[in-house]
Amino acid sequence: METVKYAAEIVQELHHAVERIAEEEAEQLADIILQSKQVFLAGAGRSGLMGRAFAMRLMHSGMNAYVVGETVTPGISKDDVLIISSGSGETKSLIPMAQKAKSLGASVVTVTINPESTIGRLSDVAVMLPGAPKDKANGSYATIQPMASLFEQTLLVFYDAVILRMMDKRGLDSDRMYGRHANLE
């Protein structure tokens, strides 16, 4: 298959994946974020990179958003939310974060392939995204892509859709958000 045909197949897979996202879970995520004082994002590997991109857009929209592990990240408290991106929901380094956030009274949301996972069960809301976990590519969900690529791509598209929904709820537009864009580049 040629490169452009692979790209077209990936876009088709994304289209099918997005159609399977539960609207109610997506709305819950947007509402929890809007009700939170601070938003913390955590994830490992490529899922973590998608969370970092989401944190940036949250900051552009005026939210106090932080990536767990950065030197400027404050402590989490009861009025905050921790959003964990984990395809498997079993990432060993993320489980203690969910437990700690819960013990401090913060809300926990996980975006995952497996809402019945350890992190999913610890969460107040578990948003299920379609995809194949990296260790079972082509097993539970049909994809031509390696490892967890479909989940990670769907995660980025989903997070951007949540931003659009929040913009709609708050009456924001891109011009207002651009005012918070980095300007020391």
Automatic annotation (TrEMBL):
<protein>
    <submittedName>
        <fullName>6-phospho-3-hexuloisomerase</fullName>
    </submittedName>
</protein>
<dbReference type="InterPro" id="IPR001347">
    <property type="entry name" value="SIS_dom"/>
</dbReference>
<feature type="domain" description="SIS">
    <location>
        <begin position="29"/>
        <end position="172"/>
    </location>
</feature>
<comment type="similarity">
    <text>Belongs to the SIS family. PHI subfamily.</text>
</comment>
<dbReference type="InterPro" id="IPR017552">
    <property type="entry name" value="PHI/rmpB"/>
</dbReference>
<dbReference type="Pfam" id="PF01380">
    <property type="entry name" value="SIS"/>
</dbReference>
<dbReference type="InterPro" id="IPR046348">
    <property type="entry name" value="SIS_dom_sf"/>
</dbReference>
